[in-house]
Specification:
CATH architecture of the largest domain: Alpha-Beta Barrel
Helix content: 40-55%
Cofactor: [4Fe-4S] cluster
GO cellular component, one term: cytosol
Enzyme class: lyase
Shape: globular
Number of strands: 8
Strand order of the largest sheet: 1-2-3-4-5-6-7-8
Binding site for Zn(2+): 269, 333
Structural class: alpha/beta
Distance between the termini: 74 Å
Radius of gyration: 23 Å
Family: Belongs to the ThiC family.
Number of helices: 19
CATH superfamily of the largest domain: Radical SAM ThiC family, central domain
């Protein structure tokens, strides 16, 4: 090819097949997409080896995208069940699947994902490093970590989360100033532990240029992980979070110098009144690079309902510039999510993303809502189901509680406001009894 990455192509004035597909999905022109990719404001994670990929664009001016975290652990190691969750997540509208597996032969599952799954595939290479090399964390070298990144690139992974922003300085600051929940990022805690055990600098920071060369080779997007993200409201906006974000801004520009696409990961727990400010600070520091946020969760005391706390924060975040929402399920902080948890998390994130897209004025975002308004005025139930985000659930709820008057629902029956207005406006008698 005449280009190495999507960003390289865009800067040469080349409109790729992936850009054309994204433009059609987003109701934008291919030239608009090309220009945004060239600037780094839109990323199209599309590894050259992910042959089954249906490309998508991530950027604040596009539809807000949804990521679903899946994968097996030592306690729950059913690969077949996990693949069923993947397929169902894609059916429900997930734009990306992050394989966070921490047990068994992860390569088999990863290859199955890139062979069959049309959604973007992401990974966190440090999770896989212990398994890949069959050596414990403190025994691994910087070269070992880089080898795993290359392996994921060869396997077709579209984006990798790398916690490049944590440094030895972070270790010193945390020990000196403290934090209520310390570091809650799993990858961030592993890097922190590795630096503490070895006394060496973060290899993802120290060998960043070599990592960029690997990413450029496969057109693998870097998702700059927020290893110091706040794990409770009390830690939001503290020294560790903001200093890491500044460092991620510097690393973003270094990646762009090599035509490597970048996303920047954002905070987990943030008070609702601080969410918008967090988005604006990131947009400034990271020069408009797509912001990928976990939630944010706006309260710490709702385990079992954290898909709701995340959806509240996610809607505000996306309305103020976040481009990519990592779903949160009811099992967050409690357990590995089952199929029902996955669906609840996806639907909550989709609602948040859609609400934000309407607020931002994304082209076509409100079309389905307007069509639903017409269907409800007409009491056309089939149209209502067709325009629903989850038609299956909507139809099931109505069928389980069948109404006395078929044209209405069992909440109001003949007291239905829509029915009364339709009859009154057409000059008909409004019969109640």
């Amino acid at each position: 090819m005449a280009y190495a990455t999507q960003m390289d192509a865009a800067r040469q004035g080349i409109i790729t097949r992936e850009m054309e597909i994204v433009a059609e999905k987003e109701n934008r022109t291919a030239e608009e997409i090309r220009a945004w990719v060239a600037e780094g404001k839109v990323a199209i994670p599309a590894n050259k080896n992910h042959k089954s990929l249906d490309p998508a664009g991530i950027g604040s001016m596009l539809k807000t995208k949804i990521n679903v975290n899946l994968g097996v652990s030592r306690d729950v190691a059913d690969w077949e069940s996990e693949m069923e969750k993947v397929n169902h997540a894609v059916e429900l509208g997930a734009d990306a699947i992050m394989d966070l597996s921490t047990h068994g032969d992860t390569k088999i599952f990863r290859n199955k994902l890139t062979d069959e799954c049309p959604a973007m595939i992401g990974t966190v290479p440090i999770y896989d490093s212990v398994i890949y090399h069959q050596r414990d964390l403190g025994e691994l070298t910087a070269e070992d970590f880089l080898e795993v990144i290359r392996a994921h690139g060869e396997d077709g992974v579209d984006f990798v989360t790398l916690h490049c922003g944590l440094t030895k300085r972070t270790v010193e600051q945390l020990k000196r100033f403290g934090r209520k929940t310390n570091i809650v990022s799993r990858g961030g805690s592993l890097i922190f532990a590795w630096m503490s055990m070895t006394g060496e600098e973060n290899p993802f920071f120290e060998y960043y240029d070599e990592i960029l060369d690997i990413c450029r080779e496969y057109d693998m997007t870097i998702s700059l992980g927020d290893g110091a993200r706040p794990g409770c409201l009390a830690d939001a906006g503290d020294l560790l979070q903001i200093e890491e974000l500044v460092r991620l801004g510097e690393l973003t520009k270094r990646a762009w110098e090599k035509d490597v696409q970048v996303m920047v990961e954002g905070p987990g727990h943030v008070p609702l009144n601080e969410v918008a400010a967090n988005m604006e600070i990131q947009q400034t520091i990271c020069a408009g690079a797509p912001f990928y946020v976990l939630g944010p969760l706006v309260t710490d005391i709702a385990p079992g309902y954290d898909h709701i706390t995340a959806a509240i924060g996610g809607a505000v975040a996306a309305a103020h510039g976040a481009a990519f929402l990592c779903y949160v399920t009811p099992a967050e902080h409690l357990a590995l999510p089952n199929a029902a948890d996955v669906k609840a998390g996806i639907m909550a994130s989709k609602i948040a993303a859609h609400a934000a897209d309407i607020a931002k004025g994304v082209p076509g975002a409100r079309d389905e809502d307007d069509a639903m308004g017409d269907a409800r005025r007409e009491l056309d139930w089939e149209k209502m189901f067709a325009h629903a985000m989850d038609p299956e659930t909507a139809r099931r709820v109505r069928d389980e509680r069948s109404p006395e008057v078929e044209e209405t629902c069992s909440m109001c029956g003949k007291f239905c406001a829509v029915r009364s207005m339709n009859k009154a406006l057409s000059g008909e008698k409004v019969d109640i009894l």
